[in-house]
What does this fold into?
Amino acid sequence: MTPRSFAPLLLAAFLGLAACDAFEDKTPRQARVRITGTAGQEATVIFSSQFVAGVTEAGVTQVSIFESDTITRTLPIDTVVDIEVSRRLFFELAPQGAAQAMVRIRVDIDDRGIFNEEGDVFAASPFRYIYLFNEPTTRVIEVI
It folds into this structure.
């Protein structure tokens, strides 16, 4: 085989590999939530993948939860939630035993880091996060 006849085969192999990436299944399977902060700080976290949500005309994402798990743990918290069927995740974080807590929250969907921020969370105004696969949401979240 001459180098000239080998070039089309090499090009076909390269295009085949590029096409495989275009058809990769990006359907989410699991969400990993990591919450760090002041050592010894207790927090209550509500997790749910069974809810409906929609964005109002005012730009507020309203969430109605059907089923959830509530945990109270000492920071850090590292949890994996199966979202393969529902393709959605809601969680709410509120500090316990203090009016506020400084936390860092990281959310990975499968191997993709999609949220990584730090800041103060207040007991009177808990932090809320929502992930919906291929659906729009806003940062302002209201549980109804």
